[in-house]
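Lecture notes, unit on binding sites. The following record was shown on slide 14. It pairs a sequence with cytidine-5'-triphosphate.
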Amino acid sequence: MSGAGAGRLVGRTVGLGITGSIAAFKAVELLRLLQAEGADVRVLATPSALRFVAPLTLAALSRHPVDADVLDLPPDGRIGHIATASEADAIVVAPATANWLGAMANGLAADPITAACLATRAPVVVAPAMDGEMYAHPATRANVARLRDFGYRIVEPELGPLASGQVGVGRLAALPQIVAAVVAAVAGAPDRRDLAGRHVVVTAGGTAEPIDPVRFVGNRSSGRMGVAVAEAALGRGARVTLIVGHVAVPLPPAAAVVRAETTGAMREALLAALDAGDGRTGFDALVMAAAVADFRPTRPAGTKLARGSALTLELEPTPDLLAEVVRRVRGLGPDGLPAAPALVPAPVLVGFAAETGSLARAADKLARKGVDLLVANDVAEPGSGFGTETNRVTLYARSAEPEAWPLLSKRAVAERLLDRVVALLSPDRASPPGGAPATDDRVPSSVQEVPS
Ligand code: CTP
């Protein structure tokens, strides 16, 4: 990130609609500028836009497939423009051609950008670019006026030399001006900075337990779910520490990232984060989305094992990190009996449970782990497994019936989960050290004694 206003879109999702003007090449730079502000950018394009700028460029830079056909289904089976419409904090159409303005003014949803704009509740920013005479035509003026009536923010084109060789009002506005309009539009969106002043620790990805210096025992976790929680928490104003094992997705630049390849390293990182050093708990919430190994090689080899005949690995169980954090928070020893004062204020503790075939064990896991919330999913179900963009989860909370959520994007799961975390946060947590200690009347005493 660079520039005076860097980070103004951290944790935000922006839909970038590109239509078929020669200025489409500038959309590549606009994408970069939005990313530099911290935005996750999803590109929607009309077929003619893709004659000016290659989808490979846009997909590679945005790290998402380009949605170019309103009838196309992306690999995860969702409808691309509807997914963008529901997840975007803003949609910016730049450049917008006269043809697209006409389609939008009349609600003709033949392209994914118009369709997404019709389907979204997010603010829409439109930056037209075309020949000066075309922009001045009453038809275009009427279409622009209609878009203003919808509440869309119009970033007026500038006076300058045009592709035709003429000089007129039709040049795409300066890119920083378009970025500023997106920032302003997002700022006008409903305020969800309900985690401002809070510290959220998220674990993500899978641990890798060494067999020898080259090989490891690992798992299929991509880290997507944990990273989505981290991004959502950042977007809601939290300070985020992201403790990651092996991940296959980019990490949000605004998070403090701690690399923890093994269960042992992840344990150390968690315990370090738990203790703020001033007698208070170091975080307000822990979301344990990492796929922590349950077993690790008992005696990893110090040098690379040579290829030979069959190899038998002896595995030992790893410590249960979440259970240990819960015990320390509640002041319990390894035997589950009171051993020390409980930490104040009590953080909200969230576990995940990846099951296969049935969620029958999840309620028991909630009690066994002693967490406030447990997010369970069946990783064998289509759209819910490792590496997918979506998840279908059931939320388990104490003294409440399990809630089965529909198939959602991982980001939407993260937002819903954070809604629940926010509702459970200790009210005085944001007060400075030395303030009145929180009484944890949230946790029933029967649950404070967690079996190890
Ligand atoms: N977890 C942990 N330490 C471990 C294993 C798991 O902290 N050694 C955490 C995971 O990050 C997750 C939760 O515990 O938040 C549940 O993980 P899961 O693998 O579903 O449960 P297990 O405790 O391993 O129980 P089981 O093997 O019986 O499914």
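Take-home: The longest strand covers residues 348-355.
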